[in-house]
Specification:
six-stranded antiparallel beta sheet; five-stranded antiparallel beta sheet; 23 strands; globular; about 35% strand; about 375 residues; 4 helices
Length: about 375
Amino acid sequence: MFERRFQFVSALLLSSLCLGDSAWGAVTVVDLGGDQFMAKFTFEAPADAKQVFVAGTFNQWNPTSLPMKGPDANGKFSLDVPLARGYYEYKFVIDGKNWTTDPDNSVQTGPNENAVLLAGINPNADHDASGKSLPFKMPGQLGHPQTIHDLINRCEQAHASGASAEIDTWLRAHPMPYFTKETVSFVVPSSKAIAIRLAIIAPGGRFGYELESITNIQSVGGDSLYGITLDRNQLPANSAYFLEVVERMHTRRMVDPNVWSVTSRDGRPVGRIIEPSATTGRIKLIGDLADPTGKIRQRDVYVYLPPGYNADSNERYPVVYLHDGQNCWDDPNEPFGHGGWSINLIADELIGNGTLKPFIAVGIANTQDRLSDYGPGA
């Protein structure tokens, strides 16, 4: 673990300032490893302030869910907030009602002058040549589309087993994420979760949201339904996602079991944020596939299914088998920072224009035994 001080500067001033200029503000961030960070917020409030809260995109701007400790002898309030790597906006809320921009952070965005926090992202690399923009802005949260409201109503009118059946049926008909013309929604059922977090990996970084509990049927033995709906037009291109499920004894990372197509990011399986399409191939994940003989380690297997795969159950396809399966797809970074081999994107294009007949591609992931698996042996 090591500590880094991330410094920020207003985008409008960036081109005329250099590192260390007095116009820079500072936020202390501790790198916990594994793309997890601890952000230390401090704020010197007016003398008559009784309580100060932190609110931002990391808690859906709830004005009272994150109370700060203090004041200390110097009149300052403070709070440590765990965050995934990414771009965040925030403000301080005095006594739960008076919203104030961080006076020590000169980077602000939007008409409300929200302060910007970058966790694990180099601010100098996240502005364009003119110093005007960051690589992405977290998409705004919108109301759920009518289709999801209809599902919620059916669940709440049914008993526990009936509600779970309603959810299962709906998810089979609407693989994740669920797109409308203006929105993209993530819906996750769970009977054990205390909370579910959505982590979106975008070019240049990642950001996260906590999903809301949108039904109240867990108390009668069914699956609670968690969800969030975002502005589709603000979503960065080529994004992917995974879920963090918080349970009583632990937190586990998982690929959405209802995702339409998977890919890989940083060598690990994630869901693709794309709309299902008859002209786009999809990738299915067989996680932790074991060798029945026990001679080699279990590993993930990715299976690319070409466009139109489900149209004819009698159709047969040639198959190509690929080593280093987690590097075969559209990851912009792995392996070695140069990007994956984009087999899925190239296949979609060549199959779509008739250059190649449809085929299946099976990417078999490597493990820490890669050299002995692939090498010539002793």
